[in-house]
DNA sequence: AAGTGGTCTAGACCACCTT
DNA sequence: AGGTGGTCTAGACCACTTG
């Protein structure tokens, strides 16, 4: 008797992915129902479901109740990256971490910040500028706006001791984050704070954090020259 | 009689997440076994497993067989982004897509490329430089190296008609991708091809693609000024 | 060696969506 | 209204990893 080894969900995933790549199922095509695939491959429907969950997360197929499973017409490469607390990022590079508060003021939100938060009218927010250092050299320059309606506690935090970055991550849950990457030239104050020549190319990360429908904070982090961000998968 | 509504895995996830955020389980702490949580919350172990799967993917906890589930000590913000085929990216902005092949040569890999592929000795690879345009204006300048050992078929593709980007996505499965982001100053040929002033800040995406242990291709994509990449979650 | 997470199954019911 | 994916359960066994 030939004892068949049991089929795993990764086997199913690999089989379906292979069929998509070799055009057995073409872009836009509807795949068989989970149950039929399960029958064909000889496993439980749950196993097919697990495989599909993976393919769906990876962006290869799209699933809808009643609509069925379709091969995505626009294959995308989906990647994931981690943004740790800046202090840990520095420490993991084996460098000594330092932090300087540059300024802390209540101000009316400028237009660009209103756009980040999706609001129409200027309001008072806490604007915090600070510098993160690695081995006493500038690492990241942070320009942050914090909504004091959703996070009034921030007003009583001593930001000379703990960075807003760290305090927020530790005390404020969030439900959604938007991140934008871009490049900018070093100019004026930015170049000065980062101790870098005017005109150099700097890597910029902008993050806006939300809890439900309410914005918490938006931050523009400008990295010193040479900074690189990695992602996988 | 009070009929309890059935507990869903999102309920379990939210409950555990809440406990982590309010420090019932502190960073580094070991959580109860799945089975105990299931007993406590009154659901099946599978349901707890599904919840943990989500928390683990989100980077909140770390799970190991026998080791159990631990709250991560370094909370990270994990975000996901899509990299579509460049043509679709342009078209989705409502712009007209064009493509120009700049050069196509068999060359020995320089040191930087050997590092991307993790190889020790220089070998012959196909080096393709090309320009993607949106509404006839430079959009992305691509400098790509393709391993002709793993992908010999590329040698017979007419790259004046179809970009290597598109051909590879359509015909070559991959199992792993590494992405690196950085910023660089516009200089020499790069500035010229992108029709941008020397010294401007440019956004750079480097991708290396693998199938199993074998590298397929590595590409440096330099975006025209103003380019922004977004990520979510 | 044993504990804990990971997976598979079979069956049931639910929820969403298209027709 | 009905079809399809999504989830829950209970039980079993497996596989990894740590003590």
- Structural domains of chain A: how many: 2
What percent of the residues of chain A sit in helical stretches (DSSP H or I)? 25-40%
What CATH calls the topology of the largest domain in chain A is Chorismate lyase
Radius of gyration of chain A in whole Å, from Cα?
24 Å
Q: Round the mean pLDDT of chain A to the nearest integer and report it.
A: 90
DSSP, total strands of chain A? 10
Q: How are the strands of the biggest sheet of chain A laid out side by side?
A: 4-5-6-9-8-7
Termini gap of chain A:
41 Å
Question: Characteristics of this structure?
Answer:
homodimer; 233 residues; alpha+beta; Arc Repressor Mutant, subunit A; Chorismate lyase; 2 domains; six-stranded antiparallel sheet; two-stranded antiparallel sheet; 7 helices; 10 strands; elongated; DNA-binding
Give structural notes.
The structure is a homodimer of 233-residue chains. Chain A has 233 residues and is an alpha+beta fold. The first copy, chain A, has two domains: 9-71, Winged helix-like DNA-binding domain superfamily/Winged helix DNA-binding domain (Arc Repressor Mutant, subunit A, Orthogonal Bundle), CATH 1.10.10; 86-223, 3-Layer(aba) Sandwich (Chorismate lyase), CATH 3.40.1410.10. Chain A has seven helices and ten strands. Chain A has helices at 9-21, 34-41, 45-57, 86-92, 111-117, 164-171, 188-193; strands at residues 61-64, 68-71, 76-84, 97-108, 124-134, 137-146, 176-185, 201-211, 214-223, 229-232. In chain A, the strands form two sheets. Chain A has a six-stranded antiparallel sheet. In chain A, strands 1-2 form a two-stranded antiparallel ribbon. In chain A, strand 5 (124-134) and strand 6 (137-146) form a beta hairpin. The radius of gyration of chain A is 24 Å and the shape is elongated. The two termini of chain A are 41 Å apart. Chains A and B meet through helix 1, strand 3, strand 7, strand 8 and strand 10 of A and strand 3, strand 7, strand 8 and strand 10 of B. The first copy, chain A, binds a DNA duplex (19 and 19 nucleotides) through helix 3.
